[in-house]
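BUG: 3D viewer hangs when loading the predicted structure for this chain

Environment: internal workstation, default settings.
Expected: structure renders.
Actual: progress bar stalls at 90%.

Input used:
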Amino acid sequence: MSRAYSTAYEHIATTINADCALLDCGASDGHTFDVLRSEYGLLVEQYSGIEWSKELAHKGKEKGLDITQGDLNKVLPYETDRFSCIYGLSVLEHLLNPCHYLRECHRVLRPGGRLVLLTPNISTYFTIALLAVGKMPSSGPHPDSNELLRSEEVFKVSSDTLQPDTESDTPSHRHLVVFSYRILHKYLQMAGFKNVEGRGFGLYPFPKFLQGGLERLDPYHCHQMVFIAEKK
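Structure tokens produced before the viewer hung:
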């Protein structure tokens, strides 16, 4: 995960210049802004965010950040061709309408603008093995019931420090739609993006010292994916 996030930040950073405008989807309280400011010099006036949680959006506003409380499943509350970069890091898998979201990203990006995504991959060897023995695919927090998280029949892959909120009115951690590498690559092209590139991170169950090379050979079955695409 750390390598995947570092790669995503590096691609976002290449878009930072004097007239840039960045949109952080799933902004939380502005954590990624803090990273991009300290490491790459992003300015407050160059940053906007949209966040599902009213509490986290409010915390971001208290820090002086332009963070709007909103729903990424719906029309994005921004004019067409506004942003030079849009990014969603560990966000796509939490959306009910992810394809609509990707089309909206294309709409509000400037021509030549960049989309950066980090999201888990459903088509991992780990998932294939679970399906082979009749179990649920496991890419993160399971939907619908906290009981499933405590069941020995479900393999929990999310961190033990993550508090499940699957039964709350506004869950933040539930995974709904998880793409495969090939389908996400294809859909970005269908949505009108060009120069679509993807990288995979974490090819289990191979040992860590082998994974760097294997990830380049077989990104299609890695646990995490980073995709970069441009608007025509």
